[in-house]
Every structure is written in C-alpha cells, then in structure tokens.
What we know:
The protein has helices at residues 4-21, 62-76, 80-93, 127-140, 147-161, 181-187, 195-204, 209-216, 226-234, 248-258, 287-291, 304-310, 317-320, 326-337, 341-355; strands at 224-225, 284-285. The protein is mainly alpha-helical and 375 residues long. Helix 2 packs across helix 5 (147-161), helix 3 crosses helix 5 (147-161) and helix 9 packs across helix 10 (248-258). This is Peroxidase.
Amino acid sequence: xxxxxxxxxxxxxxxxxxxxxxxxxxxxxxxxxxxxxxxxxxxxxxxxxxxxxxxxxxxxxxxxxxxxxxxxxxxxxxxxxxxxxxxxxxxxxxxxxxxxxxxxxxxxxxxxxxxxxxxxxxxxxxxxxxxxxxxxxxxxxxxxxxxxxxxxxxxxxxxxxxxxxxxxxxxxxxxxxxxxxxxxxxxxxxxxxxxxxxxxxxxxxxxxxxxxxxxxxxxxxxxxxxxxxxxxxxxxxxxxxxxxxxxxxxxxxxxxxxxxxxxxxxxxxxxxxxxxxxxxxxxxxxxxxxxxxxxxxxxxxxxxxxxxxxxxxxxxxxxxxxxxxxxxxxxxxxxxxxxxxxxxxxxxxxxxxxxxxxxxxxxxxxxxxxxxxxx
Length: 375
C-alpha cells in the first residue's frame, strides 16, 4: 500500500490534469444518431465526479487486485497491453468510458445491434481478460467495482507492464445499460482515413493535434495484422496498385510478410489507434519490427513509431498521413528527436484525459456484476 507521502506526491503531480478532466455527463445527454463534441456530453449538474482512490472504503484492495491480475495475465500473454489499449479506446471514443463496448446483449432485444457487432469492433480482443479480473473483484467485493473502472485501470497497468508510462487513473465510473452500434460505425477512426478525417474525429472528443499524435503513439506496441494492410499493398483505393506513398523498401517487406504463402485472415478493419492482434503469432508487422535493424533500444514502448513515419515507413495509411500536415508532422519530428520523455509525458496525459471522457458517475448507470450483461 502506498504511503501517505506517495499519495500526496501523486496528487500534487496530477492536480492540474485532474481539475480539467473530471467532467462527467448525464445519461440524458447521449444521442443515438449523431456525434457530439465532449462539451455536449458534460452536465454541470452531475451529482458526483471521479475521485482518486474511489474504492478506499468499499473495496480498498480493488486496484491491487487489478494490478496483480494483470501481472499474471501478462506473464502468459505479452500482447494483452495492446489489446486492452484498443478495447479501452473503442469504449471511451464512443460516448465515453462506460464499458458499453463489453455488452453482449441489448436488454434482451436480439434484433438490436450492439457495439461489438460494428465493423471496427469485430476484431477487438481482451474481453475474456476483463472478465477474469471482474470475477476476482466480485469475489472480494461483490457489486462494488464497475466494469468501466476495470477497463481503465487494467489498461494503465498493462501499459506500465509493456514499458510505458505510469499515470494516475481516477475512479468512480459507472457502467452503461445501453450499447451504441450506429455511433461506433460512424465514430471510430479507420486505418484508411486521411489526416483531415482523423483530426476531425479526435477533435469531436476534445483532442487537439498534439494529443491526437501522442495517442496514435499507442502503435508502439502490438502487431498490425496483414488483413489490415492488404489493400494498401495490392489494391489501394481500388486502383489495383499499391499505395504510392509506401517507400519501396517497406513495400517489399510488407509483401514478403503478408503475401508470402498467401497469408490471409478474416478480421474486419479495426481502428488506427491500435489495430492489433491478440495472438502473438498472428501474421503481420509491428513498427518495432520495421525499424529493429536500425535500433539499439530493446524496449517496445519508445519512439520507434515516430521514427518510422519520418522514414516513410508507416504501416497504416492513417499513420503515415501524420506527415501530410505541417503541425502533426512537426509533432512527429519532436517526438522522434529526443529520448522519448516528451512522448511518454504527452501520451500519459492524453490517456488520462481519455479515461475521463464523458463518464457516468453517482446515480447514473449502474455497476454491472457481469460485464457482458446490462443488468
């Protein structure tokens, strides 16, 4: 258990971010057909907000349980941080961090589509890992810790295990009883988005260019499946030709890896934040692999993603598009030029902001005992 001095230090470091991030919103402000800016999801009359160590009285061991569970899972599945990062992003990006992505039914209405069924979400992994952590928490503190808090805390702990930065995660989120299929279809960024489309979708959630470029650095970990980049290397925009922006040496590597032996997979296109496979042996490429021959670092979570973009070696079209706009390109160069501390600081700050997007708190929503079910 951290000492009082450690807790005080964390609070003092994070207060400037915390003040600007605890902006919950009312359930009534959700819209089923339109995307809104973050400000339209926030209600000034919300009864409660996120807190540091929210479960200190009701389940004081909650975060210890999440951390120890993640350590056990990570020891067997080194790819779980990337999978949970993507799961977290897909949840928070669509009407806030409310665990709606985890729902596997629609309040008994089998004719209503759910978020999991939206094309960008069909390749999501890690649901079973969240369920494992939830089972341990239910045994220790029945009906207390929300699925939304589990996703946020487990993602942070996974990032740390993968060599990424630590950042404080406020807790007290409640779980949604609804799923948002249409919003997921329209709102999740695509790997073939151009820079204008990507920046627009992130700006709708309140993220500026710097925050967007830092968040896309999540591609530092994980593997991009060949099915995601297949059209880019063989039939870009229906031309029957590869994307002309791919550097010749990278195109050769992509073809060798993804067309040798006619390797194919059946997953639909995911989002560009972390289009990653849970299976470590999945056919694909990582940004670390594409630069490994020129790198001295053995750490996966560093600035190799940005260095790849500087050399025209972005695996996703949407990633390489960061070099097509002056401000985002300058940010890529800035992140690639130092020891990684600037990227790590900005990435941590942006993830903390994302973890507080449009949360349900107080009497809003509920605490689901089973993360797949709405009640």
